[in-house]
Input
Amino acid sequence: MKHRIVVLGAGYAGATTAGRLAKRLHRDDVEITLVNGDPEFVERIRMHQLASGQELRPRPLRDLFAGTGVQVRIAQITAVDVDRKTVDLGGETLAYDTLVYALGSVIADHGVPGAAEHAYNVAGKQAALRLRARLSEVKPGGTVLIVGGGLTGIEAVTEIAEARPDLEVAIAARGRVGGWLSDKAQRHLRGAFDRLGITVHDNADITRVEADGVVTNAGRIEADVTVWTGGFTAHPIAAATTLEVADTGRIVVDAGMRSVSHPDVYAVGDAAFAEGAGGKPLRMSCASANPMAWLAADVIAARLTGRKVPETTIGYVLQCVSIGRHDGIVQRVTPDDQVLPTAFTGRTAARIKEMICASAAWGISHPTMMAPSRRRHLVVTGAGETRPLIRS
Output
């Protein structure tokens, strides 16, 4: 009987893990199933582009994984039972021997009244398309407010301002927008805001979102459209299981992305609470998702084939932010994500950011070309033990 590996979620982390496992393990011995609610791979790091009116290349999952040995299932995941080792797909039950949980994150409104009812977001494809449709209805002179001063907020506000110079676009944040960046990067960002005509509301604590604006600790900001980019939280399915999760709902994993409570479950991407360089939790980002996926796949393959389990510590090198299509910031950071004085800006940074985005999508589109080519035989499993198969 083949060892059943089920990967939940086909974002950057899930799709990368599935493809790398297919490259590592012999298909005679394993059955890899990738389950996703959307039939296409969604370039989440480009959702601000989609919302602003740009078209993105469609990437059907079944086409991407054709011939790899990965079975793609398009289905909504409604529950996971990690004690019975099953996944509920809306009435149908899928059993597994090894589970890779990569359901990612959803928008976090932090309990702010009215945020869920009145604010748009760019956390996924459908959300970005809803915002896109709403922006198309806004007449010249209309107002758009982005709430949140992190990477997502900066990319959203600059993309919209560049695409719609006929609108009054603003950004509001609890602290200083982009305040964690180096001095050079902050100066460049403020210059870009001025160039694009973006109004900045620093130190604006949003206490309520309404249909025509927001209420802050300092007063009211009018807006025809409010876009919420105030953070992400883990998909709620994990917290409803007996898996050990952090207070953020992320699955607590060890250095090999393996659940500390259920050894047949691995978590990657935004769903995983993992330590990186310096013992700091890895942040929710594409920069974390890919190395987590590579590591998880290699650890799973090593354990199933009786080989040495790899040991590595994930760290960072850069933080990249686009400022429209022709400007950007590439901020150098330490492995534990502390900002360094060095930053690349302008068109050079925009080209670097685009290269990184395109490379990530290329890796997903060529799922078995990013790992060693030798597919190793598995495995007889039982009670958590593995031993190599002897083949003539």
In short: Residues 90 and 318 are 40 Å apart (CA to CA). The first helix runs from residue 12 to 24. The chain has nine helices and 24 strands. Residues 381-392 have pLDDT under 50 and may be disordered.
